[in-house]
Amino acid sequence: MYAVELEGRGNFGEWRDAARSLLAASVAPSEVDWRLKSDRGTRLDFEQQASLPVAKTPAQITVPSAFLPLAEAIICHSDPARFSLLYRLLWRLQQDRALLQIKADPDVQAARQMEKSVRRDSHKMTAFVRFKEVPGEGAQARRCFIAWFEPDHFIVERKAPFFQRRFNDMDWLIATPKGSARWNGQLLETSREPAERPDVSDETDELWRTYYANIFNPARLKIKAMTAEMPKKYWKNLPEADLIPELVIGAEARVLGMAAKAATEPQMFHHRIQAAAAAKPQEVLPDANTLAGVKREAQSCQMCPLHCAATQTVFGEGPEKAQVMIVGEQPGDHEDLAGRPFIGPAGRVFDQVLGETGIPRQSLYVTNAVKHFKYEARGKKRIHQRPNAGEVERCRWWLTREIDLVQPKLIVAMGATAVYALTGMKETLSSVRSRPIPMENSRILFATVHPSYLLRIPDPARQAQERALFVEDLRAVRRLSEA
């Protein structure tokens, strides 16, 4: 039986070095007794501990990339069982690389719970650390602040860089029973030793109480939600928490009082508001039979569910009587936020090729078959999704009105979705690409790829080849427009 003593104050390196030695010597988890040095005086068997084994030949130890951030978080937990849990996971990962993906495994569940607890404690630290200004040393220009916080876990060193970035322009010290962090404008120092609580009370405590009393809304009181967001264990270090019991008890009476004082007639200044509204000039709406009028109408389009998740309608732009109309598939992430077509990565490729072929973008009317961004949310990213036939058909209403108003001589369809929106044909793009197709009213349709297609090609050689073909297509567009 091997006994391993650790400080156990959030230092990942000390556990990692011990675990490497044990694993290299093929010591099973059941043969290791992980101990805290702080428990030395409370246990009787410390004199019988064995030193760490030394492997004759160093072993190759590898772990999945997800294990390291998980272990670094768990080491910050205050449960003494974290060391043995991590070593069991490390041992088992040598035989099963996919272990961390098995959510039902008891060890994996326990590890995820510890990680979640550390993450929650870290979040609460960023929310409830309160700095108080203290006199500075010497004739320094920077202001000095101090804060006291009582975390559940050893997270001070983990969160110190956050506070250094957030409060870079002042000197500060965060003291806790589980370590401290200090920033002096040049150096960020952390300590794992327990700190003594400083006297951090000052006149700002009363300001916090006044602020909290004034923003407290008794009509929206939800005690469970309040205590979940601001657990009671943090109240003793928050000056405004003294007011909470009294505010909760008197909430119902205050709500009744607010209802009794509700206005029964307009306020004294009500007539001035009405007069100002009457004097405000009426907005002149654009003619419904112009591009500006249709664009305004499209802003409130609800013909399909895509409007629910999109930021806004992205209408076309360009001259009202353009010779050439460019029709893409749908706006992307950048276009959805800016409200303009073809300004994202694909739009930049499009502009570059226009420059190479000598086509001024300002001479083109640029639009999309679908006016709202369709995507799938993955974390903070919005991943493009192709619109289906029903969404394309509903949005054809706007595309048709654009064509009727612009009256282009040549319409360039970029991608199969645009071809379908303009013709109703479900042909492959390769079968109609790069050749003029007659349309009604003596118009010509010319199909090519969408610029985003070029960005998705992983092979540089093939990407260059496809880009050259796209350039040739736009040169053909220029010749057809000048004919």
Structure write-up:
The protein has 483 residues and is of the alpha/beta class. It contains 18 helices and 14 strands. A hairpin with a 2-residue loop joins strand 10 (375-378) and strand 11 (381-384). The N and C termini lie far apart (90 Å).
Q: Secondary-structure map with pairings?
A:
Layout: E1 2-6, H1 12-24, E2 32-36, H2 67-74, H3 82-93, H4 106-128, E3 132-134, E4 144-148, H5 156-166, E5 171-176, E6 179-183, E7 188-191, H6 204-215, H7 223-229, H8 244-249, H9 251-260, H10 270-279, H11 291-298, E8 324-328, H12 333-338, H13 345-357, E9 364-368, E10 375-378, E11 381-384, H14 389-406, E12 410-414, H15 416-423, H16 429-432, E13 436-438, E14 444-448, H17 451-455, H18 460-482
Parallel strand pairs: 1-2, 4-5, 8-9, 8-12, 12-14
Antiparallel strand pairs: 3-4, 5-6, 6-7, 10-11, 13-14
Query: How many angstroms does the end-to-end distance come to?
Result: 90 Å
Question: Which sheet architecture does the biggest sheet show?
Answer: 5 strands, mixed
Helical content class:
40-55%
Spatial strand arrangement across the major sheet: 3-4-5-6-7
**Fraction in beta strands:** 5-15%
Average pLDDT across residues?
89
